[in-house]
Each structure stands twice: as C-alpha cells, then as structure tokens.
C-alpha cells in the first residue's frame, strides 16, 4: 500500500524513466548489495535492532528496503517517484510517496531510525532535507546518511543521476549544522573504487547519440565472470575497516547522527 505524504517531481532528482526501467540492472549489481550490508551492520552496531521501525527515505529500487525486511525490521520505504513505488508495492509492505523538500503531514508516528542513502546530493537544500528527515526520528533515534564523495570524481554518471554535488568530510559535516541533529561520526567507504572512478572519469565518455539511460547502463556494466565475484570480495574485505573508520579515502561518505533525547 502506498501512502502519500507529499507530491513532487521525480525528474528534478533523477530521470524517472532511468530510475524505473533499470531496476533489473541494480538488482544484480554488487555496489547496492554491499551498501545494504554495510547499513545493516551499522544499524546493529548502533543498537537499532529488529523489530525497530526504520524509514528508508529515497528507497529507489528497494535493495535496502528488502534487506531491512529480511532481517525483521518494521521497515517503510519512501520515495518521490510514484512509479518506482508502484514497482515495489506488494501486500503488507509500507510505502510512502514523499518529497523531502516539502512540509510533512502533522502527527506522524516517529521511527527508531531513518536512512537517507545517496539522497541529499540530489536536493538543492541538503540541510533542510536532513532536518526534515531527522524530525521523523524519535528522541534518541538515529539518522544514517550516505553520499558520493570527492568533488574531483564528478562525472557524467553523476550528472545523469541528478547529483548536484559530491562531498568531502567537512562539507558533509556542514550539512548537519542547524538540523537539530547531533552528528556523531563520519566515515569513508569504497576506498578500492577510487582509482576505478578516476579511470572512468577519463575513459568513459558518452558516445555521439547515446541516451542518458544507455550511458547509465554502460557505467554499471559488470565485467565477465569471475569479475562480479571479485567486486563482492573487494567490498567484503573493506567492510569492517570502513565501519571502524580506518579508511582514509573512498568514493562514498557515511554520516551517523542522533536526535537529542
């Protein structure tokens, strides 16, 4: 069932046709699976355990939402794209159409945690989006955000996705100022991918006449077997080091914040 909190224009954040039509590509891509696994472990370490209520804001293709459900969380998926939500809709699943740039309905029950995974880089006023999502968390509850990192790695792939920016630790910390949330830590993820993205920045340019969807699919093309296995192993090998804050670079940054009790 899909509940509407607010209505926005999905194409302002990412072309909705790409978001909706490439779900099968995302479903088999190791990056989204690895990010979901990292998030599940992070929630556990923060003491947010099933059957806690968790909001996956900007749930997109539903990879993290499915991981939450599989572990027994009372999960809700929110997204600006009604079409994306309709593809995820099934009996018993809580889905919400919402635009984080618009006011929230009054009287919403609070969540134990909110996730904004690769969401705020799509929004002009990232601070407002964080504050709005933070207001949905109960006192003492947790907000986890992830963002693409390092402005120098910005490519046409970012532009196609509707990214307005890539972050550094100081700019991510700055986005939390004035949100009413206490930022506890930030950490890097995807250190092994940095040289890969640098190579893509130089080598992968759109061919003449190539559509944005074709470019997006090209960037996500997986190498032949056993390449996908090697990618999964690379993410698994740095999983614990990322959570421990031992990485000194990465293609993504995570932030953990808490609403004051």
TrEMBL record:
SUPFAM superfamilies, per the entry: S-adenosyl-L-methionine-dependent methyltransferases
Pfam families the record matches: Methyltransf_23
Coiled coil stretches, renumbered: none
Keywords: Methyltransferase, Transferase, Ubiquinone
Gene Ontology molecular-function annotations: methyltransferase activity
InterPro entries registered for this protein in UniProt: SAM-dependent_MTases_sf (IPR029063)
Keyword Transferase applies: yes
GO BP annotations, alphabetical order: methylation
Keyword Lipoprotein: no
Source species, domain of life: Bacteria
PANTHER family: TRANS-ACONITATE 2-METHYLTRANSFERASE-RELATED
Protein name: Bifunctional 3-demethylubiquinone-9 3-methyltransferase/ 2-octaprenyl-6-hydroxy phenol methylase
Native organism: Aquisphaera giovannonii
Lineage: Bacteria, Pseudomonadati, Planctomycetota, Planctomycetia, Isosphaerales
């Amino acid at each position: 069932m899909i509940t509407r909190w607010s209505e926005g224009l999905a194409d302002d954040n990412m072309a909705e046709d790409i978001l909706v039509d490439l779900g099968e590509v995302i479903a088999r891509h190791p990056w989204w699976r690895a990010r979901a696994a990292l998030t599940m472990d992070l929630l556990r370490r923060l003491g947010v355990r099933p059957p806690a209520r968790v909001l996956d804001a900007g749930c997109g293709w539903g990879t993290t939402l499915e991981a939450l459900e599989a572990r027994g969380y009372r999960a809700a998926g929110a997204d600006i794209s009604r079409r994306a939500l309709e593809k995820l809709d099934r009996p018993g699943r809580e889905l919400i159409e919402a635009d984080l740039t618009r006011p929230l309905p009054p009287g919403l029950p609070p969540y134990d945690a909110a996730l904004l995974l690769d969401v705020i880089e799509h929004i002009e006023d990232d601070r407002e989006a964080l504050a709005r999502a933070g207001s949905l968390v109960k006192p003492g509850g947790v907000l986890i955000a992830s963002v693409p990192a390092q402005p120098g790695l910005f490519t046409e792939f970012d532009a196609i996705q509707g990214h307005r920016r890539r972050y550094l630790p100081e700019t991510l910390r700055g986005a939390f100022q004035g949100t009413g949330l206490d930022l506890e830590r930030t950490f890097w993820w995807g250190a092994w991918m940095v040289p890969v993205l640098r190579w893509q920045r130089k080598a992968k340019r759109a061919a003449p006449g190539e559509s944005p969807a074709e470019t997006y699919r090209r960037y996500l093309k997986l190498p032949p077997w056993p390449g996908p296995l090697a990618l999964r192993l690379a993410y698994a090998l740095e999983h614990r080091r990322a959570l421990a804050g031992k990485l000194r670079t990465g293609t993504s940054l995570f932030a953990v914040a808490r609403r004051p009790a």
